[in-house]
Amino acid sequence: MWVDDFIIFGENMGIINDLKATLKEEFEMKDVGDLSYFLGIQVNRDKSQKLIHIHQTGYMNMILDRYGMQNSKPAKTPLSAGTKLVKASVKDALMDQMEYQSIVSSQMYGMQVTQPDLAQSIQQISQFTQKPTVTHLKAAKQGLRYLNGTANKGITYNGNKGLQRECWCGANWGGEEGRESVLSLSQAPNPNTWLSSMH
Fold first, then answer.
1. Which residue in 80, 107, 131, 167 has a CA-CA distance of 20 to 30 Å to 125?
2. What mean pLDDT comes out for the span 46-51?
3. Facing residues of 182 across strands?
């Protein structure tokens, strides 16, 4: 649920319809049918193949346009291999803090929803939102250039796999400025459900 828009999902369409009918008795609501768009997330579904593909092409293109990166050269990775970001020193020129925070948070929403491949770069650049330098901004903008080449990518859920789960793990052993180690984990949810949208 988000303010007055929400998604109903379940394994039985009859139960979903009963819930819709009950809600309409209590509230003024509009049923917008099968889920196709929600909070910047585009949903493409092939019921015959039991496939659900979610992506944020429109959202990604919007943030690229917002930061003037729509014509930038696409990057192959969201952060260059071997990049080591450190805190600003007294000699470093600082960048606009609000702009930097906005660039980081815009990418973070994409990471949380459809592009978990941004997790490592977001973990790195988000550490410097208080005093961003030219180096930090360059790293953050590489994430945008990466999105410029992957804006139409997303996540596909295969209902033919039933309850089988797939997980991915990334690690940075002792690679942080203070020699800390970082582990990230993401998991794909069960796609074998019905999806409907109302507001």
1. 167
2. 90
3. 172
CB 195 within 8 A of CB 34: yes
**Taking the alpha carbons of 128, 133, 139, 144 in that order, is the dihedral positive or negative?**
positive
Write down the pTM of the prediction. 0.75
Sequence length of the chain is: 199
Pick the more confident residue, 110 or 165. 110
Residue with tokens 């993401």: 186
CB atoms within 10 A of CB 68: 10
Rounded CA-CA distance 56/62 in Å is: 10
Please tell me the predicted confidence (pLDDT) of residue 39: 85
Contact 21, 198 (CB under 8 A): no
| The one-letter amino acid at 17 | N
Give Cβ neighbours of residue 61 (< 8 Å, ≥ 6 apart). 70, 151
Determine how many CB atoms are found less than 10 A away from the CB of residue 100. 23
Q: Which residue has the tokens 């003024």?
A: 28
Return the SS3 of 136: helix
4, 21, 57, 111, 143 from 121: Cα distances, Å: 33, 45, 20, 10, 7
